[in-house]
Amino acid sequence: QERKFKRVGGNKEMPVDVRIIVASNENLQEAYRKGKFREDLYHRFNEFSINLPPVRQRQDDILAFADFFLEKTNSELGKEVAGFEEGVLQTFLQYSWPGNLREFRNVVRRAVLLTPPGEKISAASLPWEITNANSLAAAAGQDKPAAPTATTTFSAPKKELDLKDAASRAEYETIMAVLQQVNFNKKKAAEMLNIDRKTLYNKIKNFQDQDS
Q: 189 and 182 in contact (C-beta within 8 Å)?
């Protein structure tokens, strides 16, 4: 505020010329009113605010985000996935995206890893919890979601609905697809999955323990 600061343990004030950008997925105004955030800090930050609605409220942007993440992932992984089947795009538009853009990016990245070069991403490459979002919403007693399109395929769960199992199964399928793509070179697989080798080894061991 005064454009000056003191180093930790120092006595001399030093001039500074910076702009601080703060991002939060919480309503900070509501948080400080409930005593969960410092009011003075809120007012220091709140000189100018930009409200970005979540993905689920930005229907017009969803397909643009899908194309952006596809192009970015193709470039990063050296892939040439051709695009999305129409049913997949409809699924993207119907899904609520509780994990916002981070979830969207990871879903597209996983689908690219599972799709052969030159082909389009199909519903089979999407996580189970996304292609079965309607069933999950109904099981949770939520409002009835939009009916699936005729081009969208849905796979039945092997047992009762369990998000933890669904996520684990999707993770296993992604890891195995990458391992096969790099001829089971774990170093390359870890790099493509953006995790370290120790984490990859631990995940593989956990999958083996679950099967035993």
A: yes
Instruction: Assign residue 22 a region (left: φ > 0; alpha: ψ between -120 and 50; beta: otherwise).
Output: beta
List strand residue ranges (DSSP E) for the chain, in order.
Answer: 4-6, 13-15, 83-84, 120-121
- Say whether 4 sits in a helix, a strand or coil: strand
Model pTM score? 0.58
CATH architecture assignment, domain 55-211: Orthogonal Bundle (1.10)
What residue type is 184 in one-letter code? F
Q: What is the pLDDT of residues 4-48, one digit of tens each?
A: 888 888 889 899 888 888 888 888 889 999 999 999 988 888 888
Pairing of strands 120-121, 83-84: parallel
Tell me: the pLDDT tens digits for 78-134?
999 999 999 999 999 999 998 899 999 999 999 998 899 999 999 989 988 888 775
- Would you list the domain boundaries of the chain? 4-45, 55-211
Residue 69 neighbours by CB under 8 Å, 6+ apart: 104, 105, 108, 109
